[in-house]
Amino acid sequence: MKILHIDDNETFTEVMSSLLELHDHICEVSNDGKEALQMTLTNNYDAIILDLDMPEFTGYDYINELEKIGIISSQNIIVLTGLLPSEEDVQGMVKKGVKVCIEKPISIEKLNAILASFLIKPSTN
Fold first, then answer.
1. What is the CATH number of the domain that holds 50?
2. What mean pLDDT comes out for the span 64-84?
3. Does residue 125 form part of some domain?
4. What is the pLDDT of residue 83?
């Protein structure tokens, strides 16, 4: 899978991208929300791993911009953040189109299971 990982913590994105690449994923990284938005608009990703708490242009800003542009529902966004917001905020993100909200840390096995779920196509019966 081709994955975009968005997090302002450069060490975390380096480690995570290395782990994902060891599991046969292609991982692009952005440590800046605005840059990530441009990357999303010019590339196709199978999944996007997004931190919420970033300076200047937060994960919330990123989600809101994708919603405003009208492409959020076509993205497989996994919010992976240090501290999950309230259940109400999580449900609000899910209503907008975020697929999964989880708290750090996460095992690579659990993350791979979530990523694999995006590959399963619903039956058309």
1. 3.40.50.2300
2. 95
3. no
4. 87
